[in-house]
């Protein structure tokens, strides 16, 4: 009995030492993590390989950005644990977002009475200016602010990935796009464009909800990072937004109509 126990203990200890030599270190402690340039290259390389994209998961993310945005950001944390990065490595979400950008642009063709050439101008402005250019500006500003002012003292040396900051913008942009560029089109001619208080109330409330969603989802994106603190400051952006909403109702300003006029002027 004693000899058998000793042999068993010895084998278990030997197995433990030998197997540990072949186990990879935890993902958060590896020194060979990919650089930002390599991650960006791999992401762009997969951009046109549709068979390698997980469209089902991307659609799930888009759905839960409306239902429960917190669940979407939990998956970003899982990605950090398994792949050592918060930013998406699958461009499926971007491809689906591009699809919705095209669909909403087609809707504006009918609502604004745009021609064939005006459609491509509108789509180009929407993709390259409203989504990408403004998104790069917003992501860069918040990336700098979060790394400079929100980083915990105990996490000096770590930083927020710029790619993750841009992913937060894309997450927040999608519900805003659906509310202001898809949903409101069904009510524009029959209700929102009318010179009634209820029409202004409905249209401006849609605008408030859309911008509020953008701010809230942006806040959640940074709040879920364990290396940041005081991220609740981002929610203060809702104060001037709500103030603008009250002023618009008091001054009979139809915000949706203003944006529609701007879109029409920009492409015609």
Automatic annotation (TrEMBL):
<keyword id="KW-0472">Membrane</keyword>
<feature type="transmembrane region" description="Helical">
    <location>
        <begin position="235"/>
        <end position="256"/>
    </location>
</feature>
<dbReference type="GO" id="GO:0000139">
    <property type="term" value="C:Golgi membrane"/>
</dbReference>
<dbReference type="InterPro" id="IPR007881">
    <property type="entry name" value="UNC-50"/>
</dbReference>
<keyword id="KW-0812">Transmembrane</keyword>
<protein>
    <submittedName>
        <fullName>Uncharacterized protein</fullName>
    </submittedName>
</protein>
<keyword id="KW-1133">Transmembrane helix</keyword>
<feature type="transmembrane region" description="Helical">
    <location>
        <begin position="122"/>
        <end position="145"/>
    </location>
</feature>
<feature type="transmembrane region" description="Helical">
    <location>
        <begin position="93"/>
        <end position="116"/>
    </location>
</feature>
<feature type="region of interest" description="Disordered">
    <location>
        <begin position="1"/>
        <end position="23"/>
    </location>
</feature>
<feature type="transmembrane region" description="Helical">
    <location>
        <begin position="166"/>
        <end position="187"/>
    </location>
</feature>
<feature type="transmembrane region" description="Helical">
    <location>
        <begin position="207"/>
        <end position="228"/>
    </location>
</feature>
<dbReference type="Pfam" id="PF05216">
    <property type="entry name" value="UNC-50"/>
</dbReference>
<comment type="similarity">
    <text>Belongs to the unc-50 family.</text>
</comment>
């Amino acid at each position: 009995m004693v000899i058998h126990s000793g042999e068993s203990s010895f084998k278990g200890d030997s197995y433990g030492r030998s197997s540990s030599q072949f186990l990879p270190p935890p993902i958060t402690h590896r020194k060979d993590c990919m650089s930002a340039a390599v991650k960006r290259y791999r992401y762009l390389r997969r951009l046109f390989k549709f068979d390698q994209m997980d469209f089902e998961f991307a659609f799930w993310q888009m759905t839960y950005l409306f239902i429960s945005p917190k669940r979407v950001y939990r998956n970003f944390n899982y990605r950090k644990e398994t792949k050592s990065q918060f930013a998406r490595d699958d461009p499926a979400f971007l491809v689906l977002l591009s699809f919705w950008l095209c669909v909403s642009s087609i809707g504006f063709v009918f609502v604004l009475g745009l021609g064939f050439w005006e459609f491509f101008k509108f789509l180009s402005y929407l993709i390259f200016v409203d989504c990408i250019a403004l998104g790069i500006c917003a992501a860069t500003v918040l990336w700098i602010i979060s790394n400079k002012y929100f980083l915990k003292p105990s996490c000096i040396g770590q930083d927020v990935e710029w790619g993750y900051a841009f992913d937060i913008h894309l997450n927040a942009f999608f519900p805003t796009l659906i509310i202001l560029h898809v949903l409101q089109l069904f009510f524009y001619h029959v209700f929102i464009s009318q010179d009634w208080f209820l029409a202004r109330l409905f249209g401006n409330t849609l605008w408030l909800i859309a911008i509020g969603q953008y701010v809230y989802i942006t806040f959640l994106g940074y709040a879920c990072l364990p290396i940041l603190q005081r991220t609740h400051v981002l929610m203060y952006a809702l104060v001037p937004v709500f103030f603008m909403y009250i002023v618009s109702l008091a001054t009979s300003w139809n915000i949706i109509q203003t944006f529609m006029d701007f879109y029409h002027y920009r492409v015609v």
